[in-house]
Amino acid sequence: MATFILSVNGVDHTVEANPNMPLLWALRDLLNLTGTKYGCGIGMCGSCTVLMDGNAVRSCILPVSASADRAIITIEGFSTDGLHKVQQAWLAESVSQCGYCQPGKILTAAALLDKNPHPTTAEIDSAFENNLCRCGTYLRIRRAVQRAAEGG
Ligand code: FES
Ligand code: FES
To answer: 64-100 burial, b for 16+ CB within 10 Å, e for fewer?
Structure first.
C-alpha cells in the first residue's frame, strides 16, 4: 500500500492503495464515484473512460500510481449543470438506451471535440473505435457528436 493524491473533479483526495490498483477501482471503491463503469476490464470497451489532463483514458488499465497528481474528470464532475453542448446534443438525439456505456461515450466525445471541434465522420468513427455499446447507439452517437460540433 502507498499514499497517493488523486485530483478528481477539481478536488484533491488522499487515498491509500496498492500502486497497481486500477484507477477505476480507486474511483468507484475508494471515492464512491460510481458513474465510471466497468465493462471489460482490459481496455477494450471504453465504459470506464475518464478524462485525464483533457485526454480520454481507460481507467480500468491505468494504475493509480500513474494517475496521481493528474487532473482527472469523471462524469460526475464533467458538467454539474448538465448544459455542456455534448450533454445537450446527447439529449436532442436521444442517444442513451440502458445508459451503462454512456458516461464513457460522453467523455470520449468531449475529448474529441476539445481537440478537434469539427471532426469528419471518419474522425468521429475513429475516436469511437473500440467503444462498445451493447444497445447499439452508434449512429446516434455519431449524430450527437456532429450536432455538438455544430453548436448544439
Ligand atoms: S472497462 Fe475499461 S475499457 Fe472496458
Ligand atoms: S446505451 Fe446500453 S450499453 Fe450503451
So the answer is: beebbebebbbbbbbbeeeebbbbbbbeebebbeeee
